[in-house]
């Protein structure tokens, strides 16, 4: 059973444990923690470039796919997420794009 505080919600320690669990998932998915408190965290995930798609696509399509991929990559944005664990242990997420680790 999770620890509760006098107000009926989870203790700071229990909320910290919930956050740490999600941060471990996020880290495995390529997210970086930029700041963290006991119950909140801000994360950042840079856009990624797939060299295999760029090179193989360029060879197979005389560079057309590479040009399209470069345009698509240029339009991508880095992702950010702000996570808060409330007093009931529920995650509240504000994000620029829905992180996969939140769905787990």
Explain what the structure shows.
The chain is an alpha+beta fold and 104 residues long. It has helices at residues 12-28, 51-60, 64-75, 100-103, and strands spanning 32-36, 40-45, 79-85, 91-95. It has a domain at 12-47 and 79-103: TATA-Binding Protein. The chain has 4 helices and 4 strands.
Secondary structure topology:
Elements: H1 12-28, E1 32-36, E2 40-45, H2 51-60, H3 64-75, E3 79-85, E4 91-95, H4 100-103
Antiparallel strand pairs: 1-2, 2-3, 3-4
Helix pairs in contact: 2-3
Mean pLDDT: 83
Please write the CATH class name of the domain at 12-47 and 79-103: Alpha Beta
Count of DSSP E strands? Answer: 4
Low-confidence parts lasting 5 or more residues at pLDDT below 50?
none
Number of helices: 4
CATH topology of the domain at 12-47 and 79-103: TATA-Binding Protein
| Radius of gyration based on Cα positions | 19 Å
- Shape from CA axes? rod-shaped
CATH-level-2 architecture of the domain at 12-47 and 79-103? 2-Layer Sandwich
Share of helix among residues?
40-55%
Query: Order of strands side by side in the largest beta sheet?
Result: 1-2-3-4
**Major beta sheet, specifics?**
4 strands, antiparallel
Order of helices and strands: HEEHHEEH
Terminal CA distance reads 21 Å
Strand content: 15-25%
Structural class: alpha+beta
